[in-house]
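TL;DR need structure tokens for one chain.
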Amino acid sequence: MALIQYDIALLLHFLCLVTTASAKVPALIVFGDSTVDAGNNNYIPTIARSNFEPYGRDFYGSKPTGRFSNGRIPSDFISEAFKIKPSIPAYLDPAFSISDFATGVTFASAGTGYDNATSDVLSVIPLWKELEYYKDYQKKLRSHLGPSSANQVLADALYMISMGTNDFLENYYTMPGRRSQFTVRQYEDFLVGIAEKFVRELYGLGARKISLGGLPPMGCLPLERTTNVMDQHECVDSYNNQALEFNAKLKVMVARLSSVLPGINLVFSNPYYILMHIVRRPAFYGFEYTSVACCATGLFEMGYTCARDGLLTCQDANKYVFWDAFHPTEKTNRIIADYVVRTVLARFL
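>> reply
TL;DR here they are.
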């Protein structure tokens, strides 16, 4: 009962913050992987796409945009919480222009990571290229708004970074290259170094409000549970411990940069505990299924395999924590985004 009352109090506090939100954050600018990709991969030669049914069936107009979900993703809900707009468009989508991007844009690419070698696995946009797109965006924004107004938007915008899972699950534990070069702890440090360099580069380009995201309990993704036969398809503890260890290092790095970069407002947004709580206590949030996903058999499908087996896809995604074997449903995305806003990002409201 005390837990329920506590959650209700947090929710009321969050709603109060949302209703009093001002234009302190005029735009949301997003970097990352499939957790925040709104369709950039549709416009590059890669198999890491989701611009087909049943993806997007609960999005506006039942449109499969390239978001790896049945509906909206966390960056969309965060934008809505800040009263900016209900969804953040992909930078490479020709349906949008700089006037749309002026209040929010995502450069994210599904399948990418901090490590360039991770983006090579599925031929997606590496992090350095996302930064190049952002520099191009800056030029267009200054031309559109004028240098003074554009610089103000760039300084007041909230920058969101969400990636890292692919570096471990898609690269380090799957491909031989990095394992031959690094122990897993050395690889963590390697990635943290890249993350720090990226934050410093954003800071040098004028960013001041930055949210660096941590890893989820990646051992609880349906794909990992499906292959965990020896432990009766429970969450893979070693992967979850890896996420906790990496998150701790990111948190230390965030604290260090906050103390040495004048004027920076850098926060660590950690999705681990809220998603783990959802997985461990699904009924509390109204879920029924945690170990299998909604799409197809729910065991291993994502992307094109999800589409091929669409006839098996569940009718009500709101009963499922995961949409495909790697990505949450819209309902889960909303819960995670609301949690991050009220516990971390509220300082920017």
